[in-house]
Specification:
With about 120 residues, the chain is mostly helical. The protein is built from 4 helices and no strands. The protein has one domain. Helix 2 runs antiparallel to helix 3 and helix 3 packs antiparallel against helix 4. Keywords: Membrane, Transmembrane, Transmembrane helix.
């Protein structure tokens, strides 16, 4: 299990760091995911900063537990947006089918964050 957890930490660390950087490089990509009643640019940059910090944290042994917990919390915060996206006429993710598939996929990602946190 140790090798699996290390592999998951590396994969998710890189993924989250990359996603965080993309929030700053291409912020318009994320606009459709942010509800209109929120300040889009501010929310985008905060999410990007959090994702970048989580990604880096997952790659550092001393901060893995805190980063995994933050990953779990952030994904729980974003979960209602994924549900909301399913019911939109034109989902931000692209298609209705992908939006529907993404919801149960979030449970797998939450479980992975939990596994990293507990090991």
């Amino acid at each position: 299990m140790g090798t699996l957890i290390i592999t998951l930490r590396i994969i998710f660390g890189i993924f989250f760091a990359f996603a965080g950087i993309m929030h700053f490089i291409k912020p318009k990509i994320f606009n459709r995911f942010i509800p209109n009643f929120l300040p889009k640019l501010v929310v985008n940059y905060i999410a990007g900063l959090l994702e970048l910090a989580i990604g880096i944290g997952l790659l550092i042994n001393q901060t893995t537990k805190h980063a995994a917990l933050a990953m779990l919390i952030l994904m729980l915060i974003f979960f209602p947006i994924h549900i909301w996206d399913v019911f939109r006429e034109k989902p931000a993710i692209g298609s209705k089918k992908i939006a529907i598939i993404r919801v149960p996929l979030q449970f797998l990602l939450l479980y992975i964050a939990y596994l990293i946190y507990t090991h």
